[in-house]
Amino acid sequence: MSTELTIPAQLLPRDGRFGSGPSRVRDAQIQAIVDAQPAILGTSHRQAPVRNLVGDVRRMLAELYALPDGYEVLLGNGGSTSFWDAAAFSLVERRAQHGVFGEFGSKFAQVTAAAPYLESPDVREAPAGSVAVPQATDGIDVYAWPHNETSTGAMAPVVRPSDTGGALTVIDGTSAAGGLDLDVQHTDVYYFAPQKSFGSDGGIWFALMSPAAIERIGRIAATDRYIPATLELATAVENSRKDQTYNTPALTPLVMMRNQLEWMLAGGGMDFATGRTAESARRIYAWADDSSLLTPFVTDARYRSQVVATIDVDEAIDAGAIAAALRAHGVVDIDPYRKLGRNQLRVGMFPAVDPDDVSALTASIDWLLEKLAP
Description:
Elements: H1 27-35, H2 48-64, E1 72-77, H3 79-90, E2 96-100, H4 103-114, E3 122-125, E4 142-146, E5 148-149, E6 154-155, E7 168-172, E8 189-192, E9 204-209, H5 211-221, H6 233-240, H7 251-267, H8 270-290, E10 294-296, E11 308-313, H9 319-327, E12 344-348, H10 355-372
Parallel strand pairs: 2-3, 2-4, 4-7, 7-8
Antiparallel strand pairs: 1-9, 5-6, 8-9, 10-11, 11-12
Helix pairs in contact: 1-7, 2-7, 3-4, 8-10, 9-10
């Protein structure tokens, strides 16, 4: 029945893509791919056209984040999932502490738990919808947690723990980077893939690294620990400094990311990007708070993500029916994270999403709630 409902055209968003990853791609990014033919596409990653492309992305990321002296932008193939393995090999000396409050924080903890050369991690876990923050503990040399938990829509503070000696702070920024404020000096490693705020494709990782992290990587590389070449961060350091990757990268994600960074910087940099996501978040949470049928899943407003909103729907109404009706109108990817198993909508609000489209989405949902409510 829900797919037979016809939402008035004037209510619908101009662009109906609200995915939490991959996210909305701007038309200019597609044109940038067309313009990259033939100068970049089909060119060796060791040659100047591609190295210049990589150099542009590294330089613009450093500008976007106002990187402190000594911090470097590294990149490698494989995405954030591969980076977890690389971090276990090249950043954790003996034992990591993980803040786990959703699917993606738990996956990194599983990696260090399975590594036979590391001690069992110290896992600080919080229920889905809240956050887990680090606690200084003897014997920990890496403190790791997600800046934004894509699966639950919870946003954690990024503040370096005190009294941790030479331990590194390693933050998963995959769904946060480019959309949430960050003081990089509170991190030693801030890593992410480009398919969220940067509107690109996956399959590559970036990391903003402090001098302490670079030193740790070199020190571990000098030991007898076996590290596969594609996961050795010392190799990534060496190649990134040459504006290249160890093995051949996909070029279109780099082209798309460069165009997105140009757009962000031209608009005003991080203030521009986070201003858009903050406004989208303000609109959607105010709407949910005012509704008798909707509730923000993250109850503590301090931790409500401004890039991924999770909204619980009254059990009397099937959230899946809302999503199906919207999908029939070209409004897509607002389904909840599959493993969370809630009667819920999840809305990506990355910088490319116009806040006015978020308002149009809420108006469309309100129209459907009137039709679907018992």
